[in-house]
Amino acid sequence: MEPKRYVIGTAGHIDHGKTMLTRVLTGVNTDRLKEEQKRNISIEPGFAPLTLPSGLTVSIIDVPGHEKLIRQMVAGVVGIDFVLLVVAADEGVMPQTREHLSILDLLGLKNGLLLLNKIDRADPDLLPIIEEDLLELARGTFLEGAPILHISSVTGEGIDHLLQVLDQKLPHIEQRKSEAPFRLPVDRSFIVKGAGTVVTGTVQSGSTGPGEVLELLPGGKRVKVRQTQVHSQTVPMVQAGQRAALNLTGVDREEVFRGQTVVQPGIWSTSRRIDIRAVSLPDLDFSLRQRSLVTLMIGTSEVFAELILYDRKEWKPGEEIYASLVLREPVVAGHGDRFILRRPTPSATIGGGEVAEPAAVKRKIHPSSAREIRQTFVGGLSVRILRELDQALLLTFRELQSLSGEGEATLCAELEALKEVDRILPVASGFAAVDTLTRIEEEMRIWLTSYHQEHPMLPGVPKAEWAARFLPDLGTKEVNTLLEMWEERRILNQKGEYIALHSFTPDLPDQWKPAVNQVVNRLQKEGWTPTEWETLLQEAKIPAKFGEDIRGFLVREAILVPLTKKLLMHREAYDRAVELAAKTIRREGSLTMQQAKECFGLSRKYLVPLLELMDKKGITRRVGDKRILIQEDKASQ
Description:
Helix 4 (95-106) links the parallel strand 4 (82-88) and strand 5 (112-117). The chain has five domains: 7-172, P-loop containing nucleotide triphosphate hydrolases (Rossmann fold, 3-Layer(aba) Sandwich), CATH 3.40.50; 183-263, Elongation Factor Tu (Ef-tu), domain 3 (Beta Barrel), CATH 2.40.30; 270-365, Elongation Factor Tu (Ef-tu), domain 3, CATH 2.40.30; 379-507, Winged helix-like DNA-binding domain superfamily/Winged helix DNA-binding domain (Arc Repressor Mutant, subunit A, Orthogonal Bundle); 514-635, Winged helix-like DNA-binding domain superfamily/Winged helix DNA-binding domain (Arc Repressor Mutant, subunit A, Orthogonal Bundle). It is built from 19 helices and 35 strands. It is of the alpha+beta class.
């Protein structure tokens, strides 16, 4: 059975004893920086292993409590499964206690304990009041109903009981999924002498091990894993839910920074615009207007973003919204990722929520946009797949995995379910949404029907024009793949570089058939000396605007053969000319211009383009002042 993996985080006001508690539990002083030890406060998140009485080893993260270090606090709690909210019994609930709990609640934490620390220094008469304040604070949050444990990191009171409670509660927490593609937000990077660059963080999803090629985003730097560790112990693989250290090759320490994410290549990408579901804290004393500047904290990243509202003019305290964020810098985000929003100045936590769409498109400012974002968010993976296919029309499995951030097994199962209910259709190596294909097919039928009625003599619409109208965002390969599918389904036909409905056959309009027959019959009689095309049109009273379409139709139907733009010869006359030229060459060995004049009795106006057309079609070839026969089969056609 796979070992359990949990990360515990501490939270609470500065000086309430979080770091001392971590040291008592683990034996590790997580204040590793000189400044932290000098000032006796935590500046960066600290990490240590904790072995419980049952033998289960978990990770514990001690986060800073100072109000100016909220960024470090948020980066530290990313990926924790269980929180210890620490309150000093001699001080009670303080401002950062409230803000930390709000942040933890907004980040979607579901499990934790309330700890009254420094119980040895508590006033027995005030203790019931502090407990009541703590219960009131927890009301309406994920810690409502959580037990309050009395502890002292100095005397050791309650520490054994705390460990026993953790042993009881942790095994019931749902494990993080390892099946999704690998992702580790970087919270630290440093150099180890003799090893090189090392990054640390909590594995959000997937697994990796030595020899794996990964990617650093933003930046796109490819790196290779040399070694993987969990709490300074070398392991063959790190998995979701573990505090991990990756020794990387191919990158210098100066190229890595907190806020980057180490990912499986080709699956994850960076976002500059995300759709969100968010809720603001109810006790705010301000609202946010359209395009307000906010600070987005997601993963270990902190970037400025512009808030785009669709169904309201301002975001008021306690309201839930479906909106978008336009980011000043790229971040790595996945559907459902939790985030915190803060006001840049004066600093204050606004609220938080979840990512509805990490690769959002620009939307119109209208309530319908908010409804679309909500539908994407609540609809689950199937809705997201269908939406992506509707936008892109045709996507490979790899592309769908990149857009969804899901593991292979999960995505395969969802695609199979959608195929069974005829919502998607496999097309070559990719997938398309049936509803989207049906809509495009109906649009094509309507438009092509109108086009064929307007241009009945043309073989269809030029392929480039058709693709630009119906498949504007697809490459040549994808366009040809869909075209082949529509040909197999007898919806479209491709004739050379023209696209037409399968049921369409080019033909002369009834109103022009008599006049065209008159022109064709005349050319048949004139043989090798045809009248110029414009003259024929004028005499048959055919408008010039129809003349080009008629000309093209007659040539494609092999009724006429174009000698020049002005001269067209009837096919029968041309075939006789080819036969006569071939016969002469077989008898004489070649055909000179003088011999051609004698054979055909034509002036250069007709003879030269006739002989050059035979050259162009590969029947004859000019060698000096003579022509020889190239292909007997063409000459006999």
